[in-house]
Amino acid sequence: MSDTFRAAYASEFYKLSKNKEIVVLLLIPVALTIFVAGYLYYDVSQNPVGEIDGSINPWQGMFGKDVFQFFYLLYPILVAIFVHACCDIEYKNNNYKVLFTLPISKHKIFIAKVLFIFITVLLSVSLSYFAFLLCGYLLGVVLPEIGFQNYDFRSVSFFVFLKLYVALAAISSIQLCLSLQFKNFIYPIGLGMFLLVFSTIVWQKDFSDFIPYTGSFKSYLNMLSENTRFERLDYLNLCSVLVFLVGSFYLFKRKIYD
């Protein structure tokens, strides 16, 4: 890593780490996971043991189902808000023109910003994954009658969260493109929410695999079916990352003329 790129990344990290949206992105999914685990403990403790269906894998049919019902709607919105915040900080005081006067190439500044976004989203998903496992293990200790301790769900949950991250990386790239095109936050976030709802409605259609936001809803279905295979949607999401990053870089370079 060259000194100029390290300086660019350090500058982006210092500048963007002050955004409160980062704390929200990192902590809300973790807090939500803990809340669902707490509610599950309360709900089960209020019911006689005989009412619990022992044939259900609690990681999938009880805990995972409830957590991902929130995740597939919440995560894309949080990512959209976070990515726009990373762009909005440059709109203030016309910082884009200031950036391009620095003795650092545009592509290094852009890559530093993209890396910061992807690493932050990865950290958020990783924290959620570890919170999911930890809460499940604790539920297995305090409520052994449910049967969390009878299943090794680490591999399945790892791939479900990995596929979720791939979808969020593609969504981040799209939202970066939209946020660079539109200064007003209503447009990128509004379009992101529309695509999220639309993809949830048409997820059974073949063309839905070409909408990266479908990956968010599919993560919920992956949890329910314990699907760990990478499918066409996941590979298309990886391609979407490259395509929309190219578009984002083009829009980023044009900011000097705005």
UniProtKB/TrEMBL annotation:
This is ABC-2 type transport system permease protein. It comes from the Bacteria. The chain crosses the membrane at residues 21-42, 67-89, 110-139, 159-178, 185-203, 235-252. Keywords: Membrane, Transmembrane, Transmembrane helix. Pfam families: ABC2_membrane_4. Signal peptide: none annotated. The keyword Thylakoid does not apply. The keyword Transmembrane applies.
